[in-house]
Amino acid sequence: MSLKSERRGIHVDQSELLCKKGCGYYGNPAWQGFCSKCWREEYHKARQKQIQEDWELAERLQREEEEAFASSQSSHGAQSLTFSKFEEKKTNEKTRKVTTVKKFFSASSRVGSKKEIQETKAPSPSINRQTSIETDRVSKEFIEFLKTFHKTGQEIYKQTKMFLEAMHYKRDLSIEEQSECTQDFYQNVAERMQTRGKVPPERVEKIMDQIEKYIMTRLYKYVFCPETTDDEKKDLAIQKRIRALHWVTPQMLCVPVNEEIPEVSDMVVKAITDIIEMDSKRVPRDKLACITKCSKHIFNAIKITKNEPASADDFLPTLIYIVLKGNPPRLQSNIQYITRFCNPSRLMTGEDGYYFTNLCCAVAFIEKLDAQSLNLSQEDFDRYMSGQTSPRKQESENWSPDACLGVKQMYKNLDLLSQLNERQERIMNEAKKLEKDLIDWTDGIAKEVQDIVEKYPLEIKPPNQSLAAIDSENVENDKLPPPLQPQVYAG
């Protein structure tokens, strides 16, 4: 089998990583293949359409109410009651329409009015509560960072505090709406710095990184894997899927990495450590940094193995292998968290966006992995997935002379256990077949006996009269001569 055919199930054209609208930015499966910018445009179009439909529905309901009210004028005795009900319904309908429009059209960075805040009988906002050590440290670093920008820094800090205040009162919104508010805030702050503050683009990027670190450290516990989503369910599903695929070997994925080389083995371990460490980070940018470090270790491992720079076709299969081998915790939750709350400019361009898009592709491949993807027969794939058997281990004659004797013995024992397991399965199958044959034979004999008994029933006759003495019928036996007696002759 050629290498090209082996890669057929894993290869992803780099053009498939880009936004399907053709804008040149990286797309994302969570955004249906669009980049952040195009997805927001499509989302706003759909939302505007929904708003228009809601308006039309509200106007139609209002006309129906007015017609019903007009027809009820002829009714006597209930006019005042009907009019009061109509006014109440009309007021409620108007309030609902105004609230709906405000909800959709209000700027995400705008804070609720002072009157609303005063009327709300709620506990103090999260920014005023007792902060954790990490949150306190991040806050101090953020303030020290903004001091270098003087007036611009004060304005940024004020906007950030207002945003956190607003997010406190928006916790009842869906996670998608909270994500939309955060993305709007990122965009508004960046545009304001570039237009009003005349801040250079490179400094804007640094400021946005600090803003993201500050706000997401505070919001992390509320927006990461919330109970209102199915993120946890997806985490358990992908974790179970990866565990079931523990038997997949590097050769099946065409991974160009030789773990027998000590340096390569170290790189693989570091890549696995980085992808697992992603879950311990709170800031989306820090999680992206873990993915980037993992990817760079993969490229180094491939480069050492092949003695040449790695290609994109080599990178994706190796990333899939690392994910299968590491089984990172809460993988789907971390991907969704980065997608929802990371600064969109990082996901659309740059190496962070490229590596993150490849990780999304790797997870999608694992979820859809089948026998054809690994160039296996469906029978072998099903046996491996069920745990009945595992792929043959490396033959002893293929080991290098410098290979560890303990590793050789381990693979030899695994091979022996695999053979014994197959032999045990054959014996059990034969035993079950013999048991079934014996049961069928017993049932057949019993049925034949029953048929014969029914065909020839047993008849029990009464016992005959006991036989009398042989001379009982001789009535004249008294006239018979006596029996002869033995005589003894002398002589």
From TrEMBL:
The keyword Zinc applies. InterPro entries: DUF5601, VPS9, Vps9-like, VPS9_dom_sf, Znf_A20. Residues 66-86, 472-491 are annotated as: Disordered. It comes from the Eukaryota. Pfam families: DUF5601, VPS9, zf-A20. SUPFAM superfamilies: Glucocorticoid receptor-like (DNA-binding domain), VPS9 domain. Residues 13-47 form the A20-type domain. Residues 232-375 form the VPS9 domain. Keywords: Metal-binding, Zinc, Zinc-finger. This is Rab5 GDP/GTP exchange factor isoform X2.
